[in-house]
Amino acid sequence: MALDDSLPSLLAGVVDTHEAELVGLRRDLHAHPELSWAETRTTDVVARRLEEIGWRVTRLPRTGLVAELGTGDRVVGLRADIDALPVQDATDDPWRSVTPGVAHACGHDVHTTALVGAALALTEASRRGRLPGRVRLFFQPAEEVMPGGAVHLMKLGHLDDVERIFALHCDPGVDVGRVGLRLGPLTSAADRVEVRLEGSGGHTSRPHLTGDLTFALAKVTTELPAVLSRRMDPRAGVSVVWGIVRAGAAPNVIPDHGSLSGTVRILDAVAWADCEKLVREVVHEIVRPYGVRAHVDYQRGVPPVVNESVSNRILAQSVLDALGDRGQVVAPQSLGGEDFGWYLDQVPGAMMRLGTRTPGGTTYDLHQGNLRIDERAIAIGARLLAGAAVLALHEA
User: Fold this and answer.
1) What are the φ and ψ backbone dihedral angles of 22, each rounded to 5 degrees?
2) pLDDT in tens, 39-82
3) Closest by alpha carbon to 180, among 23, 381, 44, 358?
4) Can you say whether residue 72 is alpha, beta or left, with left for phi > 0 and alpha for psi between -120 and 50 degrees?
5) How far apart, in whole angstroms, are the C-alpha atoms of residue 130 and residue 122?
6) Do 69 and 119 meet the contact criterion of CB atoms below 8 Å apart?
7) Mean pLDDT computed over every residue of the chain
8) What residue ranges define each of the domains in the chain, with the CATH number in brackets?
9) Pair 64, 115: CB distance under 8 Å
10) pTM to 2 decimals?
C-alpha cells in the first residue's frame, strides 16, 4: 500500500510552501471563534480559499460546507469540525479570541486549518495526475452539541457514496511530531441525562408526612452509578457523572421539585444500545420507596469512535511517510465523546490524535481557556490528512 517516495514528498513540499499561510489562517480562526450552528464567518473564509484553488464547494443549509476534487467512482472523505466552545480565552496571545466568552478551546481551529492545508496539497497532486479518484472534504459544524453536525451532514446525503473517511483531533498530551493511533474503540459513547423529581413538599420536621424529595434525589445521585456498575458488563466502562444538582431554597423546607443532570459515557457500542432503557428503569426503582415521581430525559449523544483496521493501517502508513518510524505512539482510549463516531457507524474510517505539545513544555487540557498548541502541528496534520486520502485511493 505504500506509495512511491515522490508522492509523500510532493504533498509535504506543498504544505511546507504554504505553512506561513496556514499558521496565519489558524490564528485568524482562533481570534474569531464561532459557536455551534453559528460558524458563518468560518464557513465563508474556508469556502473562499477552497474555491480559489479549484475545489467544488457546496455550502450547507445552515453553516459548514462540503468540498470535492477529482473524478471517478471512488470517494474518500476527510473531516474537520469548525465550531468553538462557550469558554473564555484565558491566553494573552496576540491572536486570542476577540469574542467574549467564546474560544477555540478544543483545537477545532487547528483541525480546520490542517484540512485546508491538505486541500492545497491534494490540489497539486490532482494537477499532476496523481489523484486516482475523488476526495470530499467535510467542514462540519456543531461537533460540540448533541446530536451534532455529523448527523446533519449524513441526513443531507453527503456520506452516502464515501467509501472511507479520516479525521484528526488535537492531543495536548502528545508532543508535536508524534501522532496517537489506536485500532478499535478510540473514544466512548456520550449521552446526557436529566432526572426531575416531583413530590408534595413539606416541613423537614415531618418527612414521614411527605415525600422526602431531597433525600430521594441524593439516592439517585449515588445509586444510579452504583446500580449500573452491577447491572452492566464492567468491561463496557460505564461512567455516570453528575454536573448539576438542584433542589430546595430553605434548610427547613422539603422541596416539591428538584433535578440533576449529567453525562453517561460508555466504551462499548453494544452496551450503549442497551443503556437508556436500563437508566430509566433504575431511576424509577430508586425513587419508588420515597413517594416521589421521577421524569427521565435521556438524550442519546454520540456513539464511540471505533477505528477500522484497514483505515487505521492507512493512517499508520501516512504517519510513517510524514514523520518516520518514531512518529507513531499508541493512543489510550478516551471517555470523551466525538460525533465522528456517527460517520464510522456507516462507513469504515479512523481518527488520529495529533500531538500539539511543545516537547518539554506545558501540558494543557482540552476545553480549557488556556489551551495553547505548538503551531508546527498544523502542517503535520495537513500532510497526514492528504497522505491518508491518497493512500486510501490507491488501496485495492
Assistant:
1) -65, -40
2) 999 999 999 999 999 999 999 999 999 999 999 999 999 999 99
3) 381
4) left
5) 9
6) yes
7) 96
8) 6-187+304-394 (3.40.630.10), 189-300 (3.30.70.360)
9) no
10) 0.92
